[in-house]
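Q: Hi! First time asking for a complex rather than a single chain. Here are the components, and I think there are two in total. Is that enough to go on?
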Amino acid sequence: MKGLLLKDFYMTIKYCRAYIFIIVVFLLLSFFGDGMTPFMFFYPAILAGMVPVALIAYEERCKWTVYSETFPLSRTQAVSCKYFVSLIGIGFVIVLSGIVQAIRVFRGVMEMAEYAKLMFSLIAVTLVVPSLVLPLIFKLGSEKGRIAYFIVVGVTCAVTVMTTFEGTFSLPDVAMPIVVVVSVVVFALSWLLSIKFYKAREL
Amino acid sequence: MNAIEIKGLTKVYSGFKLDELTLTLPSGCIMGLIGENGAGKSTTIKLILNMVKKDAGQVTVLGEDNTICSKENIGVVMDEVGFPECLKVEQVEKIMQGIYRNWDKDAYYKNINRLSVPLNKPFKDFSRGMKMKLGIAVALSHNAKLLILDEATSGLDPVVRDEVLDIFADFTRDEGHSILLSSHIVSDLEKICDYIAFINKGKLMLCEEKDALYEQYGMIHCSPDEFMAIEPSAIKGKKESHYGVEAIVLREAIPGGFNISPINIEELFVFMVKGGR
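A: Yes, that's all I need. Here is the structure of the assembled complex.
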């Protein structure tokens, strides 16, 4: 597992530098907005969810997916590695966003309640995107799974805007922690489902 | 203990069936797997490594069922070595250290130097031969007891191929070490293998000790009339031309008076495959 994570680190540094750069730029831009800047704020979360998807696509292209089957690694480890990469990306975005938006709270640009709601919704979005996409990628492969990715991202963005920013279905503040708990459960179920799908797949 | 034991191994794909393959690779030996493209060599290797699910049969690797045996003791080189293109030799070493418990860093760099693999180039800039060499270096650097090599020598120039074959031969000096090697380059297999297995259209045509094949089979050149006098079961393959008939035959079933010349494995393979058409 350590070897797999190290490989993903090397690949992320080489192939996903642009994602990291865009994530940082968008988070900084969200800092300078006077009002809510949902696109600037949530786009990094969606991009972070794309990193494991991009890594799987590269692995399939260079035939690592098949070659790694010759190593003493289980498919459970191969799947879990991508979920760990997701968690690292999620952690990176949440911590960075939390710091940037906290500065806005201290500057008086944002209310504390609004900050809390924003952060809860950010955690939910960062967890939901890989939760929905990765099982499909592990079942169908990166080519077909990528179509699912764009559908999931579109639906997630729409639902997030409607439920967070005074939309028609805006959720009450007290519901946000529940949304986060549900997202964590969905993430865990997604992990198990991906393992099941990948074990059944013929490479 | 046998390194590999396969009994009744069957895998069905649309348009192809690996049909009840049975063979044994004794420990300390090298077995060459010969077959045309699409004959089932790679499928057999993937089934041995439990990379694809078998439909029937049993595979034992180093004394354990292949579905539960650890791949720690197996070094594998596939026909395509699939490292991510951005990786360099040093990064591959660090990754493998995190994958194999018995990883031997010194052995890895020794193999890298011996095979002249460039240290500072990324994998994407490697030629096919260089990629295979890196795969071979990795397979030989974690104290494996069994090497499984699928077209590992293809893409290598003759000099390097010879050196790699020497490395493989060195590997089996230890009685506990064995190699299963598939290749189109039959001369390579002939050079180092103790056993030869022919697969054709998913069926095992023969699996014998190489020396026994030399003893059992021979080549005759004769006229069509002389050829008609030979028992059909003694003929394993033939070629007819204006000059007569060339045939691979079972030596013991040929009547006296025929001049039977020795064969090489490539001739045996080509005649057997063509004889079936």
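A: The longest helix of chain B spans residues 158-171. Let me know if you'd like any chain examined more closely.
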